[in-house]
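Hey, can you fold this?
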Amino acid sequence: MPTHETSFVYVMHNAAMQDLVKIGFTTKLPEERAHELSKPTGVPLPFEVSFRALTMRWREVERLVHQRLGDRRVSRKEFFAVSVDEAVETVRECVLAVNGIGAWEPGKRHLVKHGDRVSLSMEAGQIFVLLAMPALFSGQWDILDLWQAHSDGDQLEIYGAGARVEVTGFSDGDAGGDDDPVPYLDQAQSAANGALNGRERLAPGHRLLWLSDADDGSGACTSVIFEAWDHCQVVSRTWSPQRTSEGYPLILNALVRDPSEAMLDTARAALDLPGPRNWAPRPPADQAGVFPQPGPGHWLPQLRARSARRRRTAT
């Protein structure tokens, strides 16, 4: 049973209710939920999905959205007298608030295992430090890479994989390292899943240190540690692509700021932490390219055909 999962918070509209939008969550695809809502004979026109956010803690996100738009709520239903644009912006803000760095317990190592789907909402300027121990009992952590979020609302996804051959990395030169494993969020493949700006892989025992400077000017640094129990696929995506002064797109590995002194102190302290709970040697590049890569439904189960999902549930 996965420890970390993702589902959708959606915004829907109905041409028969032009001044209203519906905001809710679903563990299925939003289109499936829209179809269910359109079935009753009392609904003259079908519901259509205006926006979907793939997120962790979807119930909390929905609750916060409803709270922020409470004065425009119609009766006790999930209908609000707001524009689609305002509803979408509110959902984006709430996803960042609920799944940002402050939502995770600091100091604890959050394990990512096979089947887990972690979705982190980032703020511009936050930094990730990738740590690896070259041997299980070496007692020495190495810094393999530094990553940076370039826009508020950028998303870092960590998928727990079943095997090394399922994951690829751009920095490792793996085949498929620049392909988006989940480029769309519907079975019609028409709902684009943002823009890919990074794809990397973790081996068992790797740690990812998430760092953010305090907003209050205190010079403090918030940190969260994720540890790979199994091989993991890391994906970074954005809805607000940024470019260098030369016009090149800013990718996850492009560090355009210097880490603050508080970030450096936190990273140094992380180098003294005990070894990982599970460990495997970091495999070389190349191997994943020999095998067919998993399709989007492998990483996002909602994209599988309903019959396949039922078979998986039955087993």
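Oh, and this one too while you're at it.
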Amino acid sequence: MVDPREQAYREFAQERLPSLRRLAYVLSQDWHRADDLVQGALVQIYVHWDKVSAATDRAAYARTTLVRVFLNERRTSWARRVVLVDEPPDVAARPEPDSSESLTLRSALAGLPPRQRAVLVLRFWSDLSVEQTASALSCSPGTVKSQTSKALASLRRVLPDNEHTTGRRS
């Protein structure tokens, strides 16, 4: 007989797994690392399941936990010791082939500092408001705005000039 608390967690984790994995991939740019991030987030969610299950927006709680796991990983000495190299994407793990433009954007996104990348992913990939992003990152809305501005300026410098990166039509 399965404990109802355990069953509720399993159902939640199974439901959120695909979206958490996609979000983790956008943050980390690596499917294997994304899986590790999701696993770390799900462990944290399990440990705090009573608090999570009482939350009004469990998806937001899970997303916030995942972003915090990502940012905390970047702060550890592991992230400073390990040098990531450019390698072709793992074709078997990729659900669909990427276009050249998408690969260019992902490469530029990977070059951003982790906090700026997290802000862009939460604001534009997850479509969160400034306030929701600030809450997820435990910072002020002003910090979200300044990090967004800096990140977009960095992307504009490295991406080819087109309507997607400059806001102008050709």
